[in-house]
Design brief:
With 238 residues, the chain is mainly α. The chain contains eight helices and two strands, in the order H-H-H-H-H-H-E-E-H-H. The longest helix has 33 residues, at 204-236. It is globular and about 50 Å long. It starts with a helix and ends with a helix.
């Protein structure tokens, strides 16, 4: 375990070094600069729930609307920070590294703890960059990417709702818009990863594949978020 962690740190440092310029630009543009001007310190939960009398309507078919107060940048930044402590932030890269290890993909990274560390670092690095780009885009266009349970009935209706939430984001005053921040994040990170990926993977085709895989994993996680409360109640009786 110590060896794996050590190799992960070395590989992640290598990834950061080769992407230092774009990463620095993203970090300063979307995080440091807005923080210097942020005044609102209001806290906000990651997944808002409808409250009685709040004017929030969730579910009730395809014509439903979700009305939430617009997010301040400070609130967006808090959600961004918390996202790295959420299970999917590590489970996704871990699963991807395990699959790559089993398939020996990319072959240049080999096997053993060093190979696994590189794959894990690559996956986690893409996740960090995707979230950072997403923060910047959503701050500009005002989209709200938080997942809100459907409160629908029926497996298929709820599953369809969870799937579509990967491709759309809520507008602050109700309705939906394309999830530009998510698309820009996953595909932007996938192309930036070409800087540290080995030659066999550092091209547009593989970058598009990485981005699409990340998007598909978002679908799976949203489905999990939709049904987890029911599973938890049945398994843990809570």
């Amino acid at each position: 375990m110590v060896s794996i962690l050590s190799n992960f740190v070395r590989a992640f440092n290598r990834a950061i070094q080769v992407t230092a310029v774009p990463a620095a630009i993203i970090f300063f543009t979307f995080i440091v600069s807005p923080i210097l001007h942020a005044q609102d310190t209001t806290d906000l939960p990651d997944a808002p729930e409808p409250q009685p009398g709040s004017g929030v309507t969730i579910g009730a078919g395809s014509t439903s609307r979700t009305e939430l107060a617009p997010l301040t940048f400070r609130e967006r930044l808090r959600i961004y920070e918390r996202s790295f402590a959420r299970p999917e932030s590590m489970l996704g890269p871990l699963f991807g590294a395990a699959v790559g290890q089993a398939r020996n993909n990319p072959p240049e990274w080999g096997q053993g703890s060093e190979g696994f560390g590189r794959r894990l670092a690559s996956g986690y690095g893409r996740a960090v960059i995707a979230k950072t780009i997403g923060l910047g885009i959503s701050s500009l266009d005002g989209e709200d990417t938080r997942y809100v349970p459907s409160h629908e009935t029926g497996i298929w209706r709820r599953g369809w709702y969870a799937t579509t939430q990967t491709f759309v984001s809520r507008r602050p005053k109700g309705g939906y818009m394309p999830a530009y921040s998510r698309f820009a994040g996953v595909y932007g990170a996938a192309f930036i990863a070409n800087y540290w990926e080995p030659p066999s993977q550092a091209d547009a085709a593989h970058a598009l594949q990485r981005g699409s895989t990340a998007l598909a994993s978002s679908v799976g996680w949203h489905i999990f978020e939709e049904f987890w409360p029911d599973i938890r109640k049945k398994v843990f009786r809570r």
